[in-house]
Amino acid sequence: MTNSKATPATESFDADVAIVGGGPVGTLLAILLGKRGKRVTLVERWSQSYGRPRAVTYDHEIARILATLGIDSENDPAISFHDELYYWKDAKGENLQIVDWQSTSASGWRVRYWFNQPDLEERLTGIASELSAVTQVRGWQGVALAQDAEGVTLTLKRNPEEVGVDGPTQTLRAKFVIGADGANSFVRESLAIENEDKGYFFDWLILDMIPNGPYQVQPAQWQLCDPKRPTTIVPGGPGRRRWEYMVLPGESVEEMQKPERAWELLKPWGLTPENAVLERSAVYRFQARWAKQWTKGRCAIAGDAAHLMPPFAGEGMCAGVRDAVALGWRLNAILEGKQGLEILESYTTERLEHAKHYIDFSQELGKIICIHDEKEAAERDTRMKAELAERNNKPVPTDICRLGEGAWCKDAAHAGELSVQGFVEAHGKHDRFDQAVSQGWMLIALDTDPADALTPLQHMQLAHLDGVTVKVGRPGTSCDAVDINGTYAKWLRDIEARYVLLRPDFYVAATASTPEQMRQRFEEVMSRLHLTLVDEAANEDRNARQAALA
Predict the structure, then answer these.
(1) Where are the alpha helices (DSSP H) in 243-395?
(2) What span, in angstroms and rounded, lies between the C-alpha atoms of 13 and 150?
(3) Domains of the chain, with CATH numbers?
(4) What is the reported pLDDT for 114?
(5) Cβ density class 509-546: b for 16+ within 10 Å, e for less
(6) CA 474 from chain center: how many Å?
(7) Cα angle at 546 between 543 and 550, to 5 degrees?
(8) Using CA atoms, how far apart are residues 189 and 182, in angstroms rounded to an integer?
(9) Residues near 31 by beta carbon (within 8 Å), at least 6 away in sequence
(10) Separation between Cα atoms, residue 530 and residue 116, nearest integer Å
């Protein structure tokens, strides 16, 4: 960092990317960039990490992302899962709704996992610390931001809440600045980005508990839709439990947060100061809002800086992790000269609509549980029980949400959705596809050579993106990856496709049934990526086509 701003034309940058906010979203982004050699400065306002629980659950997509860092959600002692469904019950204990949190998802991981956020943050910080390209600056906060055509100047100062006085300021010059700095984001405010606020406000008391010994509750994960006190009962990761209680109208937030009130509420559940530790007691206001734009010039926002949602779907942190991955592959491509700045536009269009889906979904769930009127609750119970009976008590499957419009072909089956993943044999490994093969741009084909479906220019474009082709085949056939359980054969058969174009974030860019269709859809996707290939490549492809026609 420097103490004065250099002239953009003559300066050298302190970092390729400066990330404000050292939580899981900002740290993950720093890792994704640092692993590819980008110089990252990660700025966190607190010198010491916050050691109390916050997020406690993530879904299959996040498990898939963490697996690329070597974090195995199935076998890690710091992560747990429960082979049971997710129940919503009335005051009598009768089922109102059943959600499938038991199955293995199409993307190859369980639908739901439980963890302690400080443990995960420590793991991510440790991974970032091992990357020489990542510099972590702790105890500093952003106070000013100015950008031009070449980069961004970020002014920092020591956090006065830690040092007790206004300390000196320093400036940091980066090619890009990302704000992953929470709901009260300095970066978002500096960029004058407005929020779309859904006006959804409910106060809930969060109690994080550590039982002194084994503690079992059945079901392990459920919602008590009792109008006298709507309550959430879920795991908090290995050895931990969480209770969430709605603060009723007229109740004092200050009184609710007192330890004696916590123990009073927990008494029916068998927890006392003698057999458990109250790790945290805090009232949070559940909100639903999103930023109207997520990028501005060479700056972007992610995580809670970009969106807030009620916790009823367990997707708040998940959405932020997706933001980090979506920004990661785009920034890496821009900094490597593979794509233009325009690719950042699709970060907003894709991720905003995806996050809005989960915000709306979380709100709808909140409308079910946050009912404290006896009559309204009785009407809800009658309606939901009838709907459940019509489904023969079958659980509702968890959905895979589609991205908003962006770098994918919207007319292709499963495009814009998270890809299916199965176990394969490849490169001497027997593992999930991501771990056995790789991650990145790739064209997959079933029982045929995917290379035959591309023109010379398209081969060049795929190579320009560091992409590869992968032939998936049945056991006993010659291929790059053996489809051990027939997962890919079933998937492609169901959508009547033979080819799949995958992106670095595991989302499907296009599917096709014939080489001709693949070439057409590949071209459409490439047109959305703002590639920086030289004109000679296009001329070579045109000449080849003309020669073939002649």
Answers:
(1) 253-256, 259-266, 316-335, 343-369, 374-390
(2) 10
(3) 15-56+116-194+292-364 (3.50.50.60), 77-112+202-286+373-399 (3.30.9.10), 423-549 (3.40.30)
(4) 97
(5) bbbbeebebbbebbbbbbebbbbeeeeeeeeebeeeee
(6) 33
(7) 135
(8) 11
(9) 69, 124, 127, 128, 131, 134
(10) 40
Question: What is the enclosing helix (H) or strand (E) of 546?
Answer: helix 535-549
Say how far apart CA 477 and CA 133 lie, in whole Å.
Answer: 42
Cα torsion through 107, 112, 114, 119, rounded to 10: 20
Question: Which residues on adjacent β-strands are paired with residue 241?
Answer: 209, 235
Q: Which residue, among 440, 405, 409, has the nearest Cα to 509 in the 3D structure?
A: 409
- How far is the C-alpha of 146 from the C-alpha of 116, rounded, in Å? 37
CA gap 467, 521 in Å, rounded: 16
Chain segment 226-266, per-residue pLDDT in tens: 999 999 999 999 999 999 999 999 999 999 999 999 999 99
Rg (CA), the chain: 25
- The model's pTM: 0.94
- Secondary structure of residue 64 in the 3-state scheme: helix
- Hey, which of 82-91, 212-221, 290-299, 389-398 has the most confident mean pLDDT? 290-299
Provide the token pair at 122.
């420590």
**Is 3 a residue whose pLDDT tops 60?**
no
DSSP strand pairing (499-502 vs 295-296) = unpaired
76 contact partners, CB below 8 Å, separation of at least 6: none
Predicted confidence (pLDDT) at residue 396 exceeds the cutoff of 90 = no
Q: Distance (Å, rounded) from C-alpha 504 to C-alpha 532?
A: 18
pLDDT digit string, tens, across residues 302-317:
999 999 999 988 999 9
Confidence category of residue 163, pLDDT binned at 50, 70, 90? confident
Tell me the angle at which helices 117-129 and 24-34 cross, rounded to the nearest 10 degrees: 30
Q: Reply yes or no on whether the pLDDT at 6 is more than 80.
A: no
Phi, psi of 18 (to 5 degrees): -105, 130
How big is the chain, counted in residues?
550
CA distances, 458 to each of 61, 186, 436 (Å): 29, 42, 25
Tell me if 245 sits within 8 A of 205, measured CB to CB. Answer: yes
CA angle 446/447/453 to nearest 5° reads 70
Token pair of 217 as six digits = 């509750």
Question: In the 3-class helix/strand/coil scheme, how is 286-318 assigned residue by residue?
Answer: ECCEEECCCEECCEEECHHHCEECCHHHCCHHH
- Using CA atoms in the order 358, 359, 363, 364, what is the torsion angle rounded to 10 degrees? -30
> Which helix H or strand E contains 178, and what residues bound it?
strand 169-179
pLDDT at site 398 = 80
User: Does 91 score more than 70 pLDDT?
Assistant: yes
Question: Residue with structure tokens 């909100």?
Answer: 287
The answer to whether 472 touches 421, Cβ cutoff 8 Å, is no
The pLDDT, as a whole number, for residue 1 is 55
